[in-house]
Here is the input.
Amino acid sequence: KKLKGHTGFVNSCDSARRGPQMITSASDDCTIKIWDPRKRGGDAVTTFNNNFQVMAVCFNDTADQVITGGLDNEIKVFTYILNSLSIISIIVKLNLSDLGFT
Here is the structure.
């Protein structure tokens, strides 16, 4: 199924591990989109705007928040159910895979 809506390169995407089937994506068009692949039409169900390109995105463990990192040098947490944003200024932990990628 094709999901359409970004106007720039998609830099990252992730799927929810728990809860409803959701996909999130981050793009050079300065947006983060949340998709429900069960819905017809392939359009995003939620879009968050950013001032700079977004390079990385993932769901939290309960899939009610989306965490992003972009060229604005900030890690942001979007609670998409409440349509709200929190900016994390203190990073206390990072996780790398065996290949060195997050």
In short: Residues 10-88 form a domain with the Thrombin, subunit H fold (CATH 2.40.10). The longest strand covers residues 10-15. Strands lie at 10-15, 23-27, 31-35, 46-49, 54-59, 65-70, 75-79, 84-88.
